[in-house]
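Protocol step 4 of 6: structure prediction from sequence.
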Amino acid sequence: MARILSAIAVCFLLALPMAGQGTLAHIAVGGGWQTTLTLMNLSVTAASAQINLYSDTGAPLVVSASGQTGTNSQFTVSIPPKGSASLVFNTSSSTSSGGWINVTSLNGALLRGQGTFGYAAFNWLGVVPLTPSGSNVSCIIPLPPAQTNTITLPFDETSGTVFGLALANISSTSQSISIEFDDQNNVVLATDTLTMASLNHQSFTLDQKYPAVKNQQGVLRITAAYQSVSAVAFTDPNGSLNGNFSTVLPTIQ
């Protein structure tokens, strides 16, 4: 699934200490993919940021990063006052790997940022925002929104379009995530409950995991414990999710 970031909408919800700044629910490295994390320091003092990378199982995801020595799953970067810094994550592997990223401010500086996913074979770039912890700033697809544990968004698997979803349990405990697909007449197509261990990550295309939604369109409802899940949703009208077409999914709340 690290290869299927053709179109992206994103949200980050945190159950982290006050120093927690945000998450990216998906990282794509290897097999032609690389992910760039860009952080901006909004404070008037220098910032020190710690970046942790996790695999699908919640284990450390070891990669190389620009300007860093060797490979690691944890990196620390310094950001000048009102300045910015970027890390480009990659591996030499011909096989793509996925996971998620957590960003922590070590000295209390206020950070903002974004993730940029690049796929060299198609000269493609897709960008998603990093939303800070503990704020009411709306992301593109919040999961859940500030006052509810459920997000509603449209999906469309007709005309060869492929819809994908990536979820990361960013909490320290196991979480149950309820999913329901309804067609345009509010008829239930499929339901599921995903049980994810602490720090685990899942990514899939809807037609592969839920065949009942193939060639259908309607509404996807996702319910999770408040401030425990980070998510990315994406779609590709070309049907491959490794091409160069990009679409941002709208939010309905």
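Step 5 (inspection) to follow. The longest strand covers residues 20-29.
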